[in-house]
């Protein structure tokens, strides 16, 4: 385990991830992170990997109106195809 780092929580409740740690984990400024807690009152911070809400794919995922969708599922929504591949255009 690495040597612990101590950071103070800011007046507005934020914590800064040290730049050397961000660089070593390939977390550029502005990258989303997942924050979770454990039953032992630990806080876990992980780099967020966008995944498609519909199919779970992690490749070619974009955020559209705050929803993460892969290119293929986004196209299905645009043309009105349901998850079974049926054309629902009117």
Protein traits:
20% strand; two-stranded antiparallel sheet; elongated; 90 residues; 2 domains; alpha+beta; Pemi-like Protein 1, Chain: D; single chain; 2 helices
Describe the structure.
The chain has helices at 19-24, 71-79; strands at 33-37, 43-47, 61-64, 67-70. The mean pLDDT is 84. The chain folds into two domains: 12-48, Pemi-like Protein 1, Chain: D (Ribbon), CATH 2.10.260; 50-90, no CATH class. The relative contact order is 0.10. It is built from two helices and four strands, in the order H-E-E-E-E-H.
Number of separate strands: 4
Q: What is the distance, rounded to the nearest whole angstrom, between the alpha carbons of the first and last residues?
A: 58 Å
Portion in helices = 10-25%
What is the radius of gyration computed over CA atoms, rounded to a whole number of angstroms? Answer: 19 Å
What multimeric state do the chains show? single chain
* Largest sheet properties: 2 strands, antiparallel
Q: How much strand content do the residues show? A: 15-25%
Strand and helix order: HEEEEH
The tally of structural domains comes to 2
Low-confidence stretches: none
Number of helices: 2
Strand order of the largest sheet: 1-2
- The gross shape turns out to be elongated
Structural class assignment = alpha+beta
Mean pLDDT: 84
């Amino acid at each position: 385990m690495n040597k612990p780092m101590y950071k103070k929580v800011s007046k507005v409740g934020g914590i800064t991830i040290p730049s050397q740690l961000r660089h070593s984990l390939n977390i550029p400024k502005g990258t989303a992170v997942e924050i979770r807690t454990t039953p032992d009152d630990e806080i876990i911070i992980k780099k967020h990997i966008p995944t498609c809400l519909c199919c779970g794919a992690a490749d070619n995922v974009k955020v559209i109106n705050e929803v993460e969708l892969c290119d293929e599922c986004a196209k299905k929504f645009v043309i009105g195809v349901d998850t079974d591949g049926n054309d629902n255009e009117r």
